[in-house]
Amino acid sequence: MINGPPGKTGGPLSYPSGTLGFMDIVIRPVAPGEYETLGEITAQAYLQDGLLTFGESDWYLGELRDVAKRAAASDVLVATQGDQLLGGVTFVPSPGPMADIAGPSEAEIRMLAVDRAARGRGAGEALVRACVDRARAAGCTGIVLSTQPIMHAAHRIYERAGFVRAPERDWNPIPGVDFTLITYELTL
C-alpha cells in the first residue's frame, strides 16, 4: 500500500507488488524521528552487501546515514509494515543537488536500501514502483538510476519495473579509482 497520491497525504492505496500479490507494506514520506533509523538501515545494507569500496572508512557511509540532508533536498520515502521500518529510497523529482545523472524532465532514484532481515517481502519493489508513480505524477519523461554491477537483486527489481540498461550513461563517481556505476532508465 502507499499513502495517497505522490506528494500528498491521505488514505492508503493498495496495488500489487510484482508477483508477490497485495502486500501490507505502506510507502510514505520519512518522518524526522525516523532519520537516524533509516540512515543506519541504509548504511548497514551497503556495508553488509560489500558495496562500499573502503568499508567503514568509506566517505559515502556518511552520505548514506545523512537522511536529514537528503530529505531537505529531495523526497525520502520509507517502506513500513506494521510499526517496522523496512527500508527507504531517495526520490529526486528533477535535476538538482541530489541528482547524479538525471537530465531535464527526468527523475532519479538513489540510495534504495532494505534491511537485510526484511528482504524478500516486496519492500524494495514497492519503493521503486512508488518512485515511478511519483515521476509520472510529476510529468517526468523518464526516470534514471545508478547501481553497482554486483547489485543483482536490485537489478531484478528494476527490470521487473520496466527499467532497461543504458550503458551509454554508465559513469565513474570517484575519479582516479576503477569504480563504474551502471545506469538503468525507464521512459515514461
From TrEMBL:
Keyword Nucleus set for record: no
Gene3D superfamilies the record matches: 3.40.630.30
Sequence ranges assigned to domain N-acetyltransferase in this UniProt record: 25-188
Pfam families registered for this protein in UniProt: Acetyltransf_1 (PF00583)
Descriptive protein name: GNAT family N-acetyltransferase
Keywords: Transferase
Entry annotated with the keyword Transferase: yes
CDD domains in the cross-refs: NAT_SF
